[in-house]
Amino acid sequence: MKNGKEVCNLEIQCSRTYLDKDGKKIYDYISCRCFIPGLIKYISNYITKGTQVIVGGRFQTDLYVDRNGKNSKASYLLLEHLESVKIAKSTAPYPSKEQRDPLDDVDW
Fold first, then answer.
1. pTM of the full predicted structure?
2. Positive or negative: CA dihedral 46, 51, 57, 60
3. Fewest 10 Å CB contacts: which of 3, 24, 39, 80?
4. Closest listed residue to residue 37, CA positions, set 84, 79, 75, 76
């Protein structure tokens, strides 16, 4: 960033609840941006391609002038919350330290 703040940009793939005319899944891709240092650290350390996540935030649209001098828009989800979705592998009532969500160790 020009102002020296750290930023994280990512895209989230979301599948629709219906199929196309050929029976294939339809996907949407949502551009996301985050400026929260603790959340950026969590994303960079624990989120990889294919990780299922739950996100929260607000949609934002920025207006800018592109390289050709044309007015343009960029819309994205400004992330305020993100957590990975896990499938339980055991029936223990409390997760062991190894099974604990790394998000618990992030300083918000």
1. 0.69
2. positive
3. 3
4. 79
